[in-house]
Amino acid sequence: MIYTLTTNPSIDYIMRFDSFVDGATIRAISTEKYAGGKGIMVSKILRNLGNDPINIGFVGGFTGQFIKDKLRELGIREEFTKIKGDSRINAKLKYDKETEINAEGPHIDGEEIERFFEKIKEIGKDDLLVISGSLPKSLDKDFYKQVIKKAKCDFTIDIANKEVLSYLGYKPILIKPNKEELGNIFERDIDSFDEMVTYAKKLVGLGAENVIVSLGKEGSIFVDKDCVYRAKAIDGKLVNSVGAGDSMVGGFVHGIREGLTKKDAYKLAVACGTATAFSPDIGSKEKIYEILKKVEVSEIGN
């Protein structure tokens, strides 16, 4: 079983504009509402691939009920811990650029946290836990470490800053920074391709089993202890950057659980991330496998 953890899920309220002017009254040409949060995004792609993940985390209020209902409509299982506060709403403004306005999220109290940890006890050692996204301010900064210790199963972790370094000793099976996040982790500018490979290898040396670094228009790289692969970017129109990285995580995890080689799991990850980038929401199974035929991966050394 694959569990995805989203501690701070949201309604993603997408507003599309012909143009955007700061300080003016602007009418959206269309709006959409989705269940959002990095773990939820991973669950969506896993479901599209034929997996049956379970979402865990915290939801509350009318916004939390919307999130639960949307997942149910998609046939995705959820076992969220109910809280008193309202789950957040994040605004995604799309015009000739993309602007995201993310809310802070609800307060989560001690009793709610204890009920969540009771749920963690149900995770078995043969299960896999996908951990991703920011923590609500009311949770301890080491909350994810407490989860890892209690779950005692394989896990992936997606954190965008240097805090991820403190998790590498727990041996995550995957971390997936983008180019900017890789620089944030090591607190330096990383510009050249060779530097990206060098610092991805450092992450492996510190304990990560596998590392994927997404590079936008430059494609991506995969690094483990034995090899380095590079995938070219697929030509197409960027429709939606939200969830593309999470889709890569889901694709790789699904591939590994299905017994694919790491190279083929990486190719599937690339196809999943690209399919989402080219779609209004998470990439469909048909779109993923259409793109998979175009994915080119080359080994560039070790």
UniProtKB/TrEMBL annotation:
GO terms for cellular component: cytosol. Pfam families: PfkB. Pathway: Carbohydrate metabolism; D-tagatose 6-phosphate degradation; D-glyceraldehyde 3-phosphate and glycerone phosphate from D-tagatose 6-phosphate: step 1/2. It is an enzyme of class 2 (transferase). Keywords: ATP-binding, Kinase, Lactose metabolism, Nucleotide-binding, Transferase. Residues 7-279 form the Carbohydrate kinase PfkB domain. Its EC number is 2.7.1.144. One of its GO terms (molecular function) is ATP binding. GO terms for biological process: carbohydrate catabolic process; D-tagatose 6-phosphate catabolic process; lactose metabolic process; small molecule metabolic process. It catalyses: D-tagatofuranose 6-phosphate + ATP = D-tagatofuranose 1,6-bisphosphate + ADP + H(+); beta-D-fructose 1-phosphate + ATP = beta-D-fructose 1,6-bisphosphate + ADP + H(+). It comes from the Bacteria. Belongs to the carbohydrate kinase pfkB family. Belongs to the carbohydrate kinase PfkB family. LacC subfamily. Catalyzes the ATP-dependent phosphorylation of fructose-l-phosphate to fructose-l,6-bisphosphate. This is Tagatose-6-phosphate kinase. It comes from Anaerococcus tetradius.
